[in-house]
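Researcher: I'm comparing several assemblies side by side, and this is the next one on my list. It has 657 residues spread over two chains. Same procedure as the others: predict the full complex and return the structure.
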Amino acid sequence: MRRRITQREEHIFKNRLLTAGTRKAIEAFGYRELRAALRVEMKLLKVLTLLFVIVGGAFIAIAWRPSIAAVDLSSVQNFDAPLVKRGAQLAALGNCTTCHTAPGGPPFAGGVALPTPFGVIYSTNITPEAESGIGGWSELAFRRAMREGVDREGRHLYPAFPYDHFTMLTDTDIAALYAYFMVREPVYAKAPPNEVSFPLNFRPLIAAWKLLFLHAGPYWPDPEQSDAWNRGAYLVEGLAHCGGCHTPRNTFGAEKSRRKFAGGDAEGWTAYALDGSSPAPVPWDAEALQIYLRSGWHDHHGLARGPMAPIIDSLTEAASAQDLQAMTVYLMGFLGEPGAERRRAGQSRIDRVRIPPSLESQTVGQGGTSQDAVDGEKIYQATCASCHEGHARGPFGGIDLSLSTGPSGPDARNVLNVVLWGLPPAEGVRSPSMPGFAGALTQKQLVDLLTFVRSRFSDKPAWKQIEKDVRETLSGQRSVMVHPSPGTDLTPVSE
Amino acid sequence: MKLNVNGRDHEVEVDPETPLLYVLRNELALNGAKFGCGLGQCGACTVMVDGEAVFSCLTPLLVLEGKRITTIEGLGTLENPAPLQSSFIAEQAAQCGYCIAGMIMRAQAILQKNPGASSAEIRAGLEPNLCRCGTHMRILRAVLRAAGQMRTVGSSAKRSVP
C-alpha cells in the first residue's frame, strides 16, 4: 500500500540529493510527518546531551582532585626522634612493608605485585625520593592519600592501598607515619605499570567506588565501650586493617560490611573467619588469641603462616602489651564466647592429643572410606605422621592436625600450600619450620592426601573442590605467596 | 616394588613406608645421598624425582612408583664427571663434603629447569640445603661455573663436558 506522493515531495526528490533510504522513508511516511518526528527526536537528543553534561560535570566535580604542590625536601623541617620512633611502630602495626617492600629489595621501594580479581596492581615507592617516591609530598598530601586515597598529583589510588581503613587514623598518627617515611633512605624505583584492563584503568572511576564504599573520616570512639575496646577497634579497623584479608569482598572488590570478619582470602591463602563462624576446632579465647598474636603460635591452634606470618613479626616488633590486649578485646567481640558444646568438643580434642596414640585413636572425623582417602591415609602415615603425631614440639615436631585450623577450614588451599612449600624458616633467628613436598607428590597423591586429612581431622563435610584447587595451584594459575615463618622460638627449654 | 633409579629399574623388597634414603643406601648401595637430620631441614639427603629436588629422608617409597629417581651417582663418573661435579672440583667447593651430594642434586634440579638461573635465583633455590663448614661462597661459584658450561654446551647436562 503506497501513499500518493505530493507535489512538494516530488520537488524535493528532484532537487535534493537523497539517499535511497531517505527517499523510501519520505515515500512511506510523507515529508511533513517525517520532519515533525525528527524534530521531536532532536529535542530529545538535546535534553539527553544536557543531562549528560550535568551528570558528567558532577562526576568530574566528584572525581577531580587538585594536585598538591611538591615540596622541596631540604625545606622539610627536621623531625623529632620520638615522633619518628612512634611512626616506625605505627608503620609496623600497619604492616606497610609487606606490600611496599619487594623480597630482597630496598625497604619501602615498592614494586610488589598484588594479584587482584581486576588485574595485577604494583605497590608504589614510598621512600622520600623526589621523582619516583613520595619525596615531594607535603604532610597535607600524605594525609590526603591516607584519608582519601588520592596521590599528590591528584590521581585516585586503587583501594588495594587500604585507605578505606587508614582513613580512620588520627592526625597525630598520620603525622608520625609521615615523619617516619620522610627520613627513610630515598630510593629511585618506579613501579611497573599496573596490569588492569579497560575500563578499570580509567582512574576517575575509582571516585565512583569511593562514593559507594569509602566512609572517609577519623575513628569515633564508642562511649558505651571500654577504652581497651575502643583502642582495639581503632587498631584492628584502622591501621592493622585486619578486614582487608579476613572480610569477604563484593563484586567491586569492597569489603562486605555486613559480613565483617566472615573470612576472606589473601595472596593465594584463605584468611579464616574471625567471627562466630571461625573454623578453629578448639574455640579461641582471649588468652589464646593474645598469645597467638604475640608469638604466632598457640599449642591448641598452630602456627601463623602465609601472609599472617610477617604480620606476627610486625606485631612482635611493634605492638605493646596493651595494644595486643586491646586488639584481643575487640576481636573477641566478633569471635564471641563459644557455647558449651563447642567448648566441650574443643577440650575433648585437646585431651585426646595428650594421650599417647597407642592408648586411643586420634580420629576426629569419620575417617575415610573412599579409595582416595584410603590411599591418602597411606601417604599420611608414611610421610606426615612421624612429625605430626610424634608428640614433639616444634621445630622437631608439628602440631597434631586435629588441633590445627587447616583441616577444618572452608577449603583445602591452606593445607595444600603448606604440604607443597612447607613452612620456610625465618631468617637469622630460630623459628618453626616444615619441609615442603612439592617435588615428591603428584596431583593425584595430593588429592588423596587432602581427602584423607579432611576426613580424619575434621568433623565437617568433605571439601568440594580439592581437585580444582590442586590443579590450579600446581599449574600456577593460582599464585601463592610463601612467607618465612614468624621468628618464634619453640625449642623446649632444657632444665 | 619396582623403583627406577638412575635410569635402571630395581626390584626392592621393603615396606612401602620406608623413606627412599634408606633404600638407596642400604638396599642399592648408592651412598651418595647422606643422612643428616632426618627431618627435611638440612638437605644432605637431596635427590631428584622426575627432575625436582626432594628430601629422600622424608619421601616414602609408596609415593615413588613409576617416577624417575636420580642420585649423584647418576650424574657422572670419576672419569667423566658432570658439569656440576667438575665445577665443584674446580672450585674446591667441598670442605667436609657431607652436604655436597645434596647441594649438587638441588643445583642440578635448578639448572636443568633454568640453565640461565641468576646468582640470586641460585642462592634462593639452594636455601633448603645447609653447609656447616661455611663453603657457601665456593658452592655458589661452582654452581655458576657449571651453569655457564651447561649453557655453552646447550645440553641439560646429562653428562659429557670434561
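Model: For your comparison table: Strands of chain B lie at 2-5, 8-11, 46-49, 52-55, 68-70.
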